[in-house]
Amino acid sequence: MTSMHGGDIAIIGAAETDEIGKLPGMSVLELHAQAGLNALRDAGLTPADVDGLATAGPLAIEVSHHLGITPRWLDGTMIGGGSFMLHVRHAAAAIASGAAEIVLITHGESGRSGVGAAPFSPSPSGPGGQFQAPYGAVTPYSTFTVPALRFLHDRGMGPEDLAQVVVAQREWAAKNPRALRRDIVTVDEVLQAPMVSYPFTKDMCCVVTDGGGALVLTTSERAADLPSGARAVYLLGSGESAESTLVSQMDEVGSFQSFRRASAEAFATAGVGHADIDHLMAYDAFAHLPLYMLEDIGFVGHGESGAFIAEGHTGPGGRLPMNTNGGGLSYTHTGMYGMFAIQEAVRQLRGEAAAQVTGARTSFVQGVGLFFAAAASLVLANRRP
In this prediction, what percent of the chain has a pLDDT beyond 70? Predict the structure, then answer.
């Protein structure tokens, strides 16, 4: 019997839009379509082969109709930037249960140009619209400040530790021709950049771009029958969790329990430990998130994340290469970054990354959604157990 974990489900197609950055000539739906067709081409398939589709943003039925897909399974789960990690997990469950055979997961956002994009506004019926928006707590940089400051305070850390995250990831971005920010920077330069919202300077905040990406999933048995099966990446484990949609109502401001719960389930279902992970993609809309993730996932202890990065362990040649495409801080960030984190994990495991990690066999992908509301984790590998 096919399981959703343990390597029974394979990613056989993975691709981004032809370009990322500033794309005023492409709408949101066109970005979804181009990414989806590129991923299907990568898998050696066509829209006619697809019977399941997942996406966040547009309705899944809008994307399926635009691509000429007649689905028997749909998923429109929307938790913000980490939605696509959940889509991989949900698609794996659907394929394992027989609800679908080949699932296409698409992402496309005109985050910079705003072409065909709905304006963002908090739902007036939700907690955020009622209790945060009236006080101006709407943008990520205005809601992330308090938990970031609490995290730093509890650990005796400061803004220079946020700057170290930027410095480390820019080393990776410098090796990636598609990264938006590629210039090497120093801690002092990051700290002296224009202040956005204390403690975040401009370089501690993600880039704002247009672009998209897509994935194709099926069973490992079906993958073996396809030419693309030789480059398949397997899902070993996954996890998801959620807290309040209000940052002010986090279970613990200096730690994110959903990171802990989702990652623990991912490790348990994968049957691997931290020492088995060769590569880490940690969602980084802002520079504090990788610090949270390193500690909450358990790669380092309480208060050790800043020094771990400063000592070079996450940079080129480090023992835990992290955000090797440059991350949301330097590579791309369309508004929901999770798809691009998965794409880089797949590239690393295929041996096709711009800044390739030698011998990468396993990758841990950690997502976050709607500020500090939800978390999703994936453990991927380039071979079955």
Answer: 98
